[in-house]
Amino acid sequence: MSRTTRRILLAGLFAAPAALLSPALLAESPPDLGLLALPNASASPRPGAAGAIGRLWRGRTLAAKADAYEKYLLASGIPLVRRTPGNLGVTVMRRDEGNETEFLVLSIWESLDAIKRFAGKDYEKAVILPRDRRYLISVEPTVRHYALEREERTKK
User: Fold this and answer.
1) What global pTM score does this model have?
2) Rounded distance between C-alpha atoms, residue 20 and residue 105, angstroms
3) Considering only CA atoms, which of 122, 42, 20, 65 is closest in space to residue 8?
C-alpha cells in the first residue's frame, strides 16, 4: 500500500465500496477500519429511519488561512444552505493538523428534492463558493450522501 493511501486511511478520509477493501488492504489497515461509514450506494439517497439525508462535504486549507476561511464559510456558505427550503440543519467541523486544517460540513435534508434545490440537478457535485479556491488547497469534487438513521444531542 502506498504511503499516501495509508495516510488517507489513517486520517479517516477514505470511504470505499467493500469490494475495494481487499484482504491484503485490510491486513495493513488500522484495526478500526471496519468502523468507517460507507455512503448510501444508491443513485438516489433515501431518508433514513430518522427521516432525513445527510450530505457530507470536505475541504482543506492552510492553517494560516483557516480562521479567515471559517469566517467566510460561516458568513456565506452556511446561510446559503440554511435558507434552502428542506434544509433541516448544518454542522461545521474543523480539524487542525500541523500546517493544514480540514473542514467538514454535514448538512441535513428532508429529501433528495431538497438537496437538488441547493445543489442543482447534479447533486453529487460539491457546491463551490465563489472565493473557496482562494482559501482551499484541496476540495473533494463530490459529496457523500447518507441515510440518517438516528440523531441524538444533549442540549447545553
Assistant:
1) 0.70
2) 26
3) 20
